[in-house]
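<instruction>
Derive structure tokens from the sequence
<entry> Chain with its tokenised backbone below:
===
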Amino acid sequence: MKHYLCYFAATLMIIGVMAEPAKLTLESALLSAVRDAQFGRVLDFGPGNEQHPVRPAAPVAHTPNVDVAVIQLDADGRMVACADVLLSRDYPEGQLVLLGKNTGASLVRFRRWDIERWDGGSFSADGKQLSHKGWTNNPPLTAADDIVPGRASAPYQFMAPYPASLFKLMVAFHVMRMVDAGKINLDTEYTYRTDLTNAEPRRLRNWLEPMITVSDNHSTYALLKFFHDRDEIEPLNKEFRDLGLGTLQINHTRPADGYGWQPGQIHMTAFDTARLLWIIDGGPGELWRGANGQPVTAKLLSDSSREFLKKLLGDQGFNEALTTANFPGAPNVQPGIPSRVASRWINPFNGFVNVDNLNYGVDIRATNAHAEVSFAHKTGLTFNYGSDAGIVTSLPGQPFRHYIVAFFGNLGYRYTDEVFAARTNYPAFDDVSPISYTQRIPSLGKAIDDVIKKLTAPVP
């Protein structure tokens, strides 16, 4: 049992041994928080329906696939506790995963996302079913569906949702690893060229900044092409495998232009993402051991590279998933992690947050002045998928917490809450205060933050 970092409370819950009243643990609390979020009650505008007008939303056919992990840290960045919970139609009440010190969530056989398996087949743009496909059969799942090979005997199975734009975190990390290896520097100029006439030169720092802060796809295409030009795609994937983060993968993007991002080809899972963020956050000594037994430490990044990455993540513009700091108190918006918004996004005259031509429509100046934490994070959002992951650190004078949280789900703007059931346009496309995620996600963020506060509160 010493193999596991976060096993004790989970084991007691599984075998039902509770000789005395249960003590609050991160594992039990995260499982309860995921259950309380009731993701199985979200509404679904329907598959194959990204065009206007939309159909009225109906109850989701199956429990969504959600993967959420938390690493609780002390003030110096040492791990105090960790937990990972899966939710799906296979685990509608949530499944707490035993986590290995060096092997992570290796007890899970992670499967490639297949939207047709989730929807039960393929659909036309107007929602007409064109074909049928089973969840695990018709055709049956095979080893070719595995994200990481060699887990056929794993006790749990989970189809990992596409990470959407959160995968840009992997791109940024590898750029900084190239910087620290002396291959490039942030002022290296790269010209993104996809044909003989269009050429766009920028310094690498100027490709990275919009990719993270406003999730700019054009910048991501450029950096992926930069990787292809320098034969860095396989080194990126190999390094994650060597670090024991084998579910972090970027596969089959196009060398000619960096396009070709597809579900089932780009992968991330919650606990591996949380551990990647732990490297970025930093911490003393050995964090864990990699696939070849080598110590994994925060020294993978130089201090300057760590500072640069954390600054980019801290300047994230889209605070609307695990946190809703961009529009606190807006109609139908639930509070999430009580984080601070970077001043660059706040209009100094009316206090509204404006990001990439999106107006969140709420004067946040008073709320922002009383924010409790910083949240250095990256979000992801498409029609079918929603994600958010980052590093939470208490601000001066606020109750202490220091933790990493990662959320992945097939809960993009196709899914909504009861209040929007009759809408004929997606709430994500509203001109003011667009609501892009089910508000069960920020509610989960707040519940996690409340738990960490309780776990770190001084004993009276």
Remarks:
- The longest helix spans residues 440-456.
- Confidence is low (pLDDT under 50) at residues 7-19.
- The chain has one domain: 8-456.
